[in-house]
Amino acid sequence: MEISGKVAIVTGAGAGIGAALAQRLVANGARVLLADLDAQAAANVADAIGDGAVAVGGDVADEKVIQDLIDRAAAEFGPVDLYFANAGIGGGPGLDSTDAQWSAALEVNVLAHVRAARLLMPGWLERGSGYFVSTASAAGLLTQIGSAPYSVTKHAAVGFAEWLSVTYGDKGIRVSCICPMGVDTQLLRGGLIPEDAAAGELAIKAVTTAGAVLPPEQVAEAVLAGIDAEHFLILPHPEVLKMYRHKGADYDRWLEGMRRFQAALGAGHAPPVD
């Protein structure tokens, strides 16, 4: 898809990958509505970008908020061409994660994508074009040591993106799924499991020792290149594909290797279950 002249919504755009995506999109000629739970953070990014960017605050897991974003983008710039379901949160650690932690991760990491697609698809099908971009994680292809809710919901995000592509790919709708490993964001710097410092440290260590931690700007460049080529999987860390192939080639061996990796990180036993 040619980015220039297109209208995009980017969620989680107050910092990190979302902010970098918004900046690169506008630099390439798109007009962008930035959405974030932190309205001031989104406004600061939009102000720094200048013309072609508008910021809105709100919970992007709320269907009414998503509808308001779509309506605002249409009023400011025109019908939405691209939707970047980028907002994401961590979650609890393991089996001791609370139902509230599971629900929050499911709402933001999965159901926010479902609700956005539900609202956008009728217009996109009528126009015969649209692009849905899901920010998942390498955890959605592999796993996330230290956090069950994060791992499970990122798997679900990949699965939903696959379903969208299969179901609507022959009707002019394009879908991409971003699956990076470590990215220098607030989530990686301590927000993955804020309620459990030990589990959070383990999860972060698992990411930072597996490969390079990339700046958000480098990820944004990879995303725009992937959209230009209309690739489904966008892998800012190319080595993820090799890991994914090893997993599929011998699942038992891969699981054994992950257990060894976990033990080497200093987590040779499972966390207690309350």
Name of the CATH architecture: 3-Layer(aba) Sandwich
What's the β-strand tally? 7
Structural class: alpha/beta
Task: State the name of the first-level CATH class.
Answer: Alpha Beta
Counted up, domains total 1
Largest sheet: 7 strands, parallel
Mean pLDDT: 92
Strand content: 5-15%
Rg, nearest Å: 18 Å
CATH topological fold name: Rossmann fold
How many helical stretches? 10
Please describe what this structure looks like:
The protein is 52% helix and 12% strand. By secondary structure, the chain is of the alpha/beta class. The chain has a single domain (7-237), classed as Rossmann fold (3-Layer(aba) Sandwich), CATH 3.40.50. A seven-stranded parallel sheet has the order 3-2-1-4-5-6-7, with helices on both faces. Strand 2 (31-36), helix 2 and strand 3 form a beta-alpha-beta unit. Helix 1 packs across helix 8 (216-229), helix 4 runs parallel beside helix 5 and helix 9 (239-249) crosses helix 10 (251-264). The longest helix has 29 residues, at 99-127. It is globular, with a radius of gyration of 18 Å. The model is unreliable at 268-274 (pLDDT under 50).
